[in-house]
Design goal:
The protein is an alpha+beta fold. The protein folds into 4 domains: 147 residues, Distorted Sandwich (Calcium-transporting ATPase, cytoplasmic transduction domain A); 272 residues, Calcium-transporting ATPase, transmembrane domain, CATH 1.20.1110; 157 residues, 3-Layer(aba) Sandwich (Rossmann fold), CATH 3.40.50; 186 residues, Calcium-transporting ATPase, cytoplasmic domain N (3-Layer(aba) Sandwich), CATH 3.40.1110.10. The chain is built from 34 helices and 27 strands. The strands form 5 sheets. Strands 10-27-26-25-11-22-24-23 form an 8-stranded mixed beta sheet, with helices on both faces. Strands 14-13-12-21-20-19-18-17 form an 8-stranded antiparallel beta sheet. A hairpin with a 7-residue loop joins strand 17 and strand 18. Helix 4 packs parallel to helix 9 and helix 10 packs parallel to helix 26.
């Protein structure tokens, strides 16, 4: 709509604004201009919710049972694990609630508004539709508003739209097709964005939750973080263990009573066995593994805010990444120069003045003179300044517009020095960039008394000012733009005086050349994308930038692989839910809105994918929360995106994500190792207790002996498996299927097989010694414990031999195994423990026999791995 129509539709006046009475009436109708949060969950309820997990319920039952049978040590350990897990869960959920608070803090506290004909400062929450607000450089926009006057206005909308450079605004009405995407609404300003240049008068159109920022807040509230794959798998495991424990109690009790054992004794034994079958160390192993993994990731610049995110990375099948600062360096760089048919390549790092200029074509012109003229225009027609690093590890930065900073750095590389040139060429006047002219011109005094006019802008805007045109320049500009560059033309002319310069600067200029600028890709980005591909992970780009720029970056790092590029307007034109049918065909999305980012994540999740989403802006926050793992940028990210995310990248580097995926896979492998190890021992004890009566043995293990084995084997050795190193092929295999059970890929078969071997060896020793009158129960008791230690050493890898891994590569496990062996020997040789556990000392021959037999499970697993290696 034209501005007069906007004023009429909102019943307001540009010169006098609303009256206080009108504003009060409207405030009563539309409500305060603020981001509204839903009532927070009470802390006590949030804490109690942590105890509803099935595994936690199973552990609480186990704690009650161990307390009833008098095993207070196990009770204390189990209760400690439960409280630790509940505390961690409470802390993570409480942190997640801070995202909305960070979003609310983006608001401007006060706004300058025209009321009753005068300008006054009012609390931002009191703004209403129809208010006339005034904006200047440095202001935070207090509400969504239609621009009525906007000379030279530039607004930083990166936090809201992902647009990497400040947006030039105008007051002209838009074509209807352009009115949809925020990035194309050049005659609007939006709540929470900031004015970087110029000034404006604007008419408030929407406030509070009806603004673009408010709609994002609504999306953030509507989409809560989903359960992680590990949490879902452990919930299934917990339910299976709970049902198994009840069945075991009933079955062992029935078998024992049927064989003539006293009912009370069998009740105690069956309950003890059920407790032993529960790997109560599992939550501790998971928590410690996640915590240690988080520490390792922090050393590699990935800061974990929510512990389950560590393992979730190992499940990821799709990484949806932002472009600016993640795949690219987040700094503008002049990479190509074209002058009169000759081309140069520029090297260097961002805004640093260090670098080189390399000719790409044979030059028939005076290159030194031509490059100096271009560098002089780049410095003089410029309002920015380069800022040197404060510390050695800092980078050069720019004060002002990033594009102008890149031009200054380019000039320095050409030997044209900013400070010296500006001192000798005082600026006399300027014609600043505006949306109509689309170019900037500055006028400078020379030592000879003449005046230089320097112009920069898009080639199509500079061409009308030239004395003559060169078709080659237009061809080259199109070529650069297609390659994803931002192309600027630099031109100038010399005049007798300022009046002549002001009169003639729009004609008769000489084209000094074209500069192609880009945000360069990170050096490690292509290798990281390739590593993700080898690991079976699909990478896609979702950005607010121009499609040509996005396509060029994707092609440079090998992300696109011939797949399509889709823009936000194209996505908006599709029928709802149509995206899910062809989401696999698209690798790059450009000009996207916050709602569309949610749609893309939801479409991938509908295919069964585990999605990691990166982002830095407010518009990314809802998608960060909806994704299976949200990853925010630590350097460029807003507080809103960081609070909504599960992990923050301290270096904003895509390669860090790929390194974190490796860590996540290692952790999940270790959790599976512990599940295999813990349940193998539990299944062996169950088989022993059930088979013993049929082999003529009395009660095979006493309750105290069962709990002792449980305490030893599920203790330090189990925890030590949680710190095992990653296997060499960790990143050369595809992600596990999202719906895979924790027992998948043959794990439960190996648990049963290894449990059967362990039980068979232990029962064989017991039956033999029982028949010859030896210490059968002590040998059974000791062999069951030591056989499980051999299992712990062998399950460190699915395929690699323990001998090739080396026993010292997991020193914690080696110490834990040796310590457990020592504790078991104490149980059979020290009198107080013999009385507690009803054991008897073994002779040297009996001890050697037990030690030799206890390696059986280790050798069986090693033989199986050898067969697998040879088949492979």
């Amino acid at each position: 709509m034209p501005v007069p129509d906007v004023l009429r539709s909102l019943d307001t006046r540009l010169d006098s604004g609303l009256t206080e009475a009108e504003a009060s009436e409207r405030l009563a109708v539309v409500g305060a201009n603020e981001i509204v949060e839903r009532p927070p969950v009470p802390s006590w309820l949030m804490f109690l919710r942590q105890f509803t997990n099935t595994m936690i319920v199973v552990l609480l039952i186990a704690a009650v049972v161990t307390a009833v049978i008098g095993d207070l040590k196990d009770t204390i350990v189990i209760v400690g694990v439960v409280v630790l897990n509940a505390s961690i869960g409470f802390t993570q959920e409480h942190r997640a609630e801070q995202a909305m608070a960070a979003l609310r803090d983006m608001a401007a506290p006060f706004a300058r508004v025209v009321r009753d004909g005068g300008v006054r400062s009012i609390p931002e929450r009191e703004l209403v539709p129809g208010d006339i607000v005034k904006l200047e450089a440095g202001d935070i926009v207090p509400s969504d508003a239609r621009l009525a006057d906007a000379p030279n206005l530039r607004v930083n909308e990166a936090a809201l739209t992902g647009e990497s450079v400040p947006v030039d605004k105008s007051i002209a009405p838009l074509d209807a097709p352009s009115a949809g995407a925020l990035t194309d609404q050049l005659n609007m300003v939006f709540k929470g964005t900031s004015v970087t240049y110029g000034r404006a008068i604007a008419v408030v159109t929407t406030t509070g939750m009806d603004t673009a920022l408010g709609r994002i807040a609504s999306l953030l509230e509507a989409h809560r973080a989903p359960a992680t794959p590990l949490q879902r798998r452990l919930a299934v495991l917990g339910r299976a263990i709970a049902l198994g424990a009840v069945a075991i109690c009933a079955l062992v009790f029935a078998v024992g009573v049927a064989s003539g054992e006293p009912a009370t004794r069998m009740l105690l034994a069956s309950v003890s066995l059920a407790v032993a079958a529960i790997p109560e160390s599992l939550p501790a192993v998971v928590t410690i593994s996640l915590a240690l993994g988080a520490q390792r990731m922090a050393r590699h610049h990935a800061i974990v805010r929510k512990l389950p995110a560590v393992e979730t990375l190992g499940s990821v099948t799709v990484i949806a990444t932002d472009k600016t600062g993640t795949l690219t360096q987040g700094r503008m760089l002049g990479e190509r120069i074209w002058i009169d048919g000759h081309e140069w390549r520029v090297t260097g790092d961002g805004y640093s003045p260090d670098g080189a200029v390399e000719s790409l074509t044979p030059s028939s012109i005076d290159a030194g003179t031509a490059l100096y003229a271009l560098g002089r225009a780049a410095v003089l027609c410029n309002d920015a300044a380069l800022v040197p690093p404060v510390r050695l590890d800092d980078a050069w930065s720019v004060a002002g517009d990033p594009t102008e900073g890149a031009l200054l750095a380019l000039a320095e590389k050409l030997g044209v020095h900013d400070a010296a040139l500006r001192r000798g060429h005082e600026r006399l006047a300027e014609e600043p960039f505006d949306s109509a002219r689309k170019r900037m011109t500055t006028f400078h005094a020379t030592s000879s008394g003449r005046v230089l006019a320097m112009t920069k802008g898009a080639l199509e805007a500079v061409t009308p000012t030239l004395a003559g045109t060169d078709p080659r320049s237009e061809t080259k500009a199109v070529e650069y733009a297609a390659a994803g560059y931002r192309v600027l033309a630099l031109a100038g002319s010399e005049h007798a005086n300022l009046d002549a310069a002001l009169r003639d600067a729009a004609r008769g200029n000489t084209l000094y050349g074209l500069v192609a600028l880009a945000d360069p890709t990170r050096p490690e980005a292509a290798a990281a994308v390739s590593a993700a591909h080898r690991a079976g992970i699909r990478t896609i780009m979702i950005t607010g930038d121009h499609p040509a720029t996005a396509r060029a970056i994707a092609d440079r790092i090998g992300m696109r692989d011939g797949s399509a590029v889709m823009t936000g307007p194209e996505l908006a034109a599709e029928p709802p839910h149509h995206l899910a049918t062809h989401v696999n065909e698209i690798s790059v999305y450009a000009r996207t809105t916050a709602e569309q980012k949610l749609d893309i994540v939801e479409a991938w999740k509908a295919t069964g994918a585990i999605v990691a989403m990166t982002g830095d802006g407010v518009n990314d926050a809802p998608a960060l929360r909806l994704a299976d793992i949200g990853i925010a940028m630590g350097v460029s990210g807003t507080e809103v995106s960081k609070e909504a995310a599960d992990m923050v990248l301290a270096d904003d580097n895509f390669a860090t994500i790929v390194a974190a995926v490796r860590e996540g896979r290692r952790i999940y492998d270790n959790v599976r190792r512990f599940v295999r190890y813990g349940l193998t021992g539990g299944s062996a004890e169950i088989l022993v207790m059930m088979a013993a009566p049929f082999l003529g043995l009395p009660l095979a293990l006493l309750p105290a002996q069962i709990l002792w084995i449980n305490l030893l084997t599920h203790g330090l050795p189990g925890l030590a498996l949680g710190v095992e190193r990653a296997e060499p092929d960790t990143m050369d295999r595809p992600p596990r299927p999202p719906d895979e059970n924790i027992f998948g890929r043959g794990l439960w078969q190996r648990i049963v097989a290894d449990g059967l071997v362990t039980a068979t060896v232990a029962l064989g020793l017991a039956v033999w010694q029982y028949r010859v009158g030896g210490p059968w129960q002590t040998m059974l008791f000791t062999s069951l414990a030591l056989l499980q230690l051999g299992d712990a050493l062998a399950v460190r890898s699915e395929t690699a031999s323990t001998f090739s891994l080396g026993f010292a590569t997991n020193r914690f496990l080696l110490i834990a195994v040796l310590g457990t062996v020592g504790a078991q020997l104490t149980a059979i040789y020290l009198a107080p423990f013999r009385q507690l556990l009803t054991t008897e000392p073994l002779g040297i021959t009996e001890l050697i026999t037990v030690l030799a037999a206890s390696t059986a499970t280790f050798w069986v697993i090693e033989a199986r791995k050898l067969v697998r290696r040879r088949r492979a």
